[in-house]
Amino acid sequence: MSSNLPSRRFAILGLLALGGCGFAPVYSDSNTLRGAIAFKADETIAGYRLQERLEQRLGRATAPRYTLDVTMTRGSRSAAITDDGDTTRYNVTGIAKWTLTDATGQQVEKGKVDAFTSYSATGSTTATQTAATDATARLSVILADMIVSRLLILSPKLMQ
């Protein structure tokens, strides 16, 4: 009979070593960017949803050290067409270009994220319009989450 006891010991010692090396969870409430960024987005429904999601993830700024300016562009294209030429599914594409500036107005970082989502157009006119609105809202959330991920990767650099 063999034992996995040595491998368990190494695993426990490895976890203890990682705990003492200064690693901190990126998604914790003690994140250094929480409440430190003021957000500016397009004055559209999609821009509002994007800004709302950014504030949910990073907190509303009380004393901002940075400003994040986000510009979104959206598009729509047919994804599924029947033999009769009717479109039954649409893809909603989006690109969000963002710029992070510090309190002096100097650009700290910039980037671009893109994503897509889709919706079905097989129901009534009202159902299709509701599905399109929901797809746009989902796209805004996806883009905001991608921006937050990039900012969290940058956070150690920003706090130097």
TrEMBL record:
<dbReference type="GO" id="GO:0019867">
    <property type="term" value="C:outer membrane"/>
</dbReference>
<dbReference type="InterPro" id="IPR007485">
    <property type="entry name" value="LPS_assembly_LptE"/>
</dbReference>
<keyword id="KW-0449">Lipoprotein</keyword>
<protein>
    <submittedName>
        <fullName>LPS-assembly lipoprotein</fullName>
    </submittedName>
</protein>
<dbReference type="GO" id="GO:0043165">
    <property type="term" value="P:Gram-negative-bacterium-type cell outer membrane assembly"/>
</dbReference>
<dbReference type="Pfam" id="PF04390">
    <property type="entry name" value="LptE"/>
</dbReference>
